[in-house]
Amino acid sequence: xxxxxxxxxxxxxxxxxxxxxxxxxxxxxxxxxxxxxxxxxxxxxxxxxxxxxxxxxxxxxxxxxxxxxxxxxxxxxxxxxxxxxxxxxxxxxxxxxxxxxxxxxxxxxxxxxxxxxxxxxxxxxxxxxxxxxxxxxxxxxxxxxxxxxxxxxxxxxxxxxxxxxxxxxxxxxxxxxxxxxxxxxxxxxxxxxxxxxxxxxxxxxxxxxxxxxxxxxxxxxxxxxxxxxxxxxxxxxxxxxxxxxxxxxxxxxxxxxxxxxxxxxxxxxxxxxxxxxxxxxxxxxxxxxxxxxxxxxxxxxxxxxxxxxxxxxxxxxxxxxxxxxxxxxxxxxxxxxxxxxxxxxxxxxxxxxxxxxxxxxxxxxxxxxxxxxxxxxxxxxxxxxxxxxxxxxxxxxxxxxxxxxxxxxxxxxxxxxxxxxxxxxxxxxxxxxxxxxxxxxxxxxxxxxxxxxxxxxxxxxxxxxxxxxxxxxxxxxxxxxxxxxxxxxxxxxxxxxxxxxxxxxxxxxxxxxxxxxxxxxxxxxxxxxxxxxxxxxxxxxxxxxxxxxxxxxxxxxxxxxxxxxxxxxxxxxxxxxxxxxxxxxxxxxxxxxxxxxxxxxxxx
Length: 604
What we know:
Blueprint: H1 15-20, E1 33-38, E2 44-50, E3 59-66, E4 72-74, H2 87-93, E5 99-104, H3 121-135, E6 140-149, H4 151-161, E7 167-173, H5 179-184, H6 192-206, H7 210-213, E8 224-227, H8 237-246, H9 252-256, E9 291-299, H10 304-314, E10 320-328, H11 348-361, E11 373-377, E12 382-386, E13 396-401, E14 405-407, E15 414-419, H12 447-451, E16 455-458, E17 466-470, E18 473-480, E19 486-494, E20 500-509, E21 545-550, E22 554-558, E23 563-569, E24 586-591, E25 598-601
Parallel strand pairs: 3-5, 3-6, 6-7, 7-9, 9-10, 10-11
Antiparallel strand pairs: 1-2, 2-5, 4-8, 11-12, 13-14, 13-25, 15-24, 16-23, 17-22, 18-21, 18-24, 18-25, 19-20, 19-23
Helix pairs in contact: 3-4
């Protein structure tokens, strides 16, 4: 089955149908105009300006602020794609009447400067100045939007947070709201492999190490020759100087290792913490009239879907549209086990065009009359619509029972025990690979094998199909032999023929088990943790403790005759650090009696 927007009738006018009737009036120029802009501190930022050929009137502009090269230099005579990252937006939006301005953020590409942070606050101030320049151009109509996937998506949040009056609409695609919890420390546990692999990618790009960059399938074409110089730098002298400055950029494993607790300042800079590079922290600056298209996928990294949902919940005074599809990071894959093919058929660019046409260009597209939430139900293979999140409010409670079963009623008190296996992992076909720059196209294909050695509880066969939509929660009563532990919980479907399918997961470091109300800048409908030092508390070994772990959101139909399975592990050696180091804890999960562990699922 495909992820076509015609599946399920969730739209009054599906994005693809809107795009089919939308005129394409202009041509794409062969190359952009390119130049340096000097920032407040003198740092020179490289930009490309793509203008529609044939357009005579002022134009709305879309900004893309990227660390992944605004444009590559290409070997003479080669047909290699010089704009593999921003190209899809340029080629689609420019002929439809938008100016697209693509920026190498400071310390990357052809821009000067060094990167002092992942999503540095300096970049936010740069985006404000760049917008000043855009609206001062004779081709500008004074209206600015922003978009991009992942890093550029979060940059669009930062731009809007400046409160610049020209910014009317942003489309953060597959972008975090909180870099700590959504990206590098899900559940308070550092993703060590992500930090390592992202660092390797950025060294390859920032240092113009083409010998390393060829290891990434997106940039493997040998005709790609590093960042493209700006027009004024005909011989590449300025580019060489800029790249030399990049050698002073931060290194991701060292940098992320500084942020063991959310919002705890650096020891050398009391004003800098994980909040400094997270969009939520500056979101109060987003004017309520700025429209937002928050987009993610069910297999989008460690928590990007949570980021999109929280963006939707937090900016409740804004016109916000939430789109959640059967995709991995960037919608490079349709991740459904029931897909027809790997490449998504959903026309994401059509949805983006309709959004910008409505809120940036000022057309009447009918978008304001559509539901605010659209999400794809896996196995049902249909799109659903809703006016709010969560789409399903009521939950069904399954309790952990004897004989490794999930039941409707708790039985006698007991427990099941395991020792964390620090050598065990979830492999290399998981939700984490794509955000690490790895070209993964198949997800959890070996899940039956990977989950076989976990502690598991399984329900009776379902008498009728049931559809999950939202966040499940594992409510566990545990004891631990150590004062800390990582707890990984996995939800699976065991089909009637024995096939075991991964559905979703959640993870939490026990040190961060204390729940707190979600702050105004990060609204949540699932159990929230501050991950701050003052809320952290070691376990008391041997003492029973109640811990609620939210599962990452999904929409999934369980078939008639299938069984629901909850599995627990104490490590994921392929992606996460050990907790505690070198001390694999013995964990006992209590069931029955007054301390009955359970699984709560929003099922219909």
